[in-house]
Amino acid sequence: RTADFRTLQQAHDDATAGDTLYVAGSASGYSSLLFLKKLTVVGPGYFLDENADLQARPLSARTSGIEFASGAEGSAIIGMDIRNPILVWVGPVTIMRNRITNTNGFSKPLIELKSNIKNAIISQNYIHNEYKSSLSHGIELELGLSNIIIKNNYIRADSTGGADAISMLETSAAEITHNVIDGDLLLANSTFYNNILVAGTYVATATDTRNNIGAHDQFSSAGGNLQNVAMSAVFVGTGSSDGRWQLTPASAASAAGSSGVDMGIYGGATPYVLSGLPPIPAIYFFSAPSSGSPASGLPIELKIRSVN
Fold first, then answer.
1. How would DSSP label each residue in 19-30?
2. Contact at 8 Å (CB) between 47 and 125?
3. Which of 158, 192, 224, 281 is the most exposed place for a label (fewest CB within 10 A)?
4. 153 near 242, Cβ under 8 Å?
5. Are 73 and 92 in contact (CB under 8 A)?
6. Is the CA virtual torsion 46, 49, 55, 56 positive or negative?
7. Quick one: which H or E segment has residue 9?
8. Is the dihedral of CA 260, 265, 266, 269 positive or negative?
9. In this structure, are residues 273 and 242 in contact, taking their beta carbons and an 8 Å threshold?
10. pTM over 0.85
């Protein structure tokens, strides 16, 4: 069957504001996408070849960079495999359950929130900026941002290049909870709790820092923070790229968060979902013969599970 649209941008342009676009997994990548209207874009997830039996067709919807521009207020992108930076000019927006990496060597943050945005949610993503540059942060918050929520993400930036996992300017504020972070942090005016810092430094001003774990002495021992914790005893450390960050049964992060919840990406009210499966039914098994007959028909077997 011929595809409905030749590019992801063409699908956006043809859609009506408020529509949802479902993007199929593909062996080849999709183009970049400029949001100019309110849309929800939903892919099938990522690491589907590593986490077996989650999708019958284990191909991600791989796309280049994403930009949310004027008119995109209220948009969301979910379950996509994004290989270049995301630039956000407006709010509210939701960036949820995506894999976000830098494969073209851009010296830019993977998620860049421009000045004076109000209301953005960055939740349950796998974020890894592997490019070594002082500008190649995982997430960057510019001036005057408010109501920014960063929760249940794996966030990594290579600090040897001088980048931060999260970098924010002093007039912005954020709620940063239940993340696993590999890289330096530069924060201000925020709440920071139930996070696990596997490596990197922690510099924060006017920030409520409590119930976190550090591999070294990144946090004070006050407020339920734990210092000098061996990460090999915190995480299972094996399996898929995102499954390895699950807690061991005897993990120091188990029930050590605020109100007795687990720390890290699999804890709290919105735990990380393996492979970033979107919150729609998933066909995880499909079987059909190559041909049928008038007598036997074309017997097809499907197995479907709901995903929260």
1. -EEE----SS-B
2. no
3. 281
4. no
5. yes
6. positive
7. helix 8-14
8. positive
9. no
10. yes
